[in-house]
Amino acid sequence: MLKSYYKKGLIEAGCDEAGRGCLAGPVYAAAVILPPDYKNKILNDSKQISEKKRELLRTEIEKEAIAFGVGKVDNVEIDEINILNASFLAMHRSVDLLKTKPELLLIDGNRFNPYPNIPHECIIKGDAKFLSIAAASILAKTYRDDFMFAAHEKHPEYAWNKNKGYPTKAHRAAIAAIGTTDIHRMSFRLLPEQLELDI
C-alpha cells in the first residue's frame, strides 16, 4: 500500500509526467490532491498497471480527488525549450489548473523548477511510494494515450495505437520510410542514422 502523505496535515499535490522519452506528441503532466483518508489497493505507478485498470483508476481518481489538473507541452515547445524544461512546464500547467491550492508539491523524480510560492519535495520513484503521485501518473499517462490514439487515426502508419510515440522499431521504420509528421519532435534523435531522415 502506498503512503497517503509526505507531511501530515498539509494539502499535498502529487505531480508526475508522461511521454518524456517519446519521439512524437506532447509531454503531459498531472497534479492530484487526494482526500487525507483516501485508500486504494491497486493504485500504483502507471507503468505497473494494465491499460484496462488505468482507465478504471482514472475514472475513480477524477471522481474522488479534491482537485486535479492535467497540463501538456506540445512538440513545438519541446523543441524550443528541451524536454526536461517542457516536463517541468507541463507540471506547472497542471498545478495552475488545481481548484484547491496545495501547500506542498510532491514531484516524481529528482529535479524540478520551483513553482511560485509553493514548496516542493522531489521523490525518486515517487509514483511507487505515494498515492497522490501514483494518481498523477495515471492521469498523465491516460490523457497522453488518448492524444496518441487520436493521432493514430490520422497517421496509422506509425502504429501509435501500440507504441504511443515511443521509439520502437516499427515507429522508427515508418519515419525512415515516410518521413515525419507535424507532431514529431524534431530536436530528438528520430533515427540512429539521422542522415537517412528525409525532412
What is shown here, in short?
Helix content is 37%, strand content 15%. By secondary structure, the chain is an alpha/beta fold.
Helix-residue proportion: 25-40%
Residue stretches low in confidence (pLDDT < 50, at least 5 long) are: none
| Biggest sheet: strand arrangement | 3-2-1-4-5
| CATH architectural grouping of the largest domain | 2-Layer Sandwich
Domains (count): 2
Classified by CATH, the class of the largest domain is Alpha Beta
**Which of globular, elongated, flat, extended, rod-shaped describes the shape?**
globular
Could you say what the CATH topology of the largest domain is called?
Nucleotidyltransferase, domain 5
SSE order in H/E notation?
Answer: EEHEHHEEHHH
Distance between the termini: 48 Å
The class by helix and strand makeup works out as alpha/beta
Question: How large is the count of helical segments?
Answer: 6
Radius of gyration: 17 Å
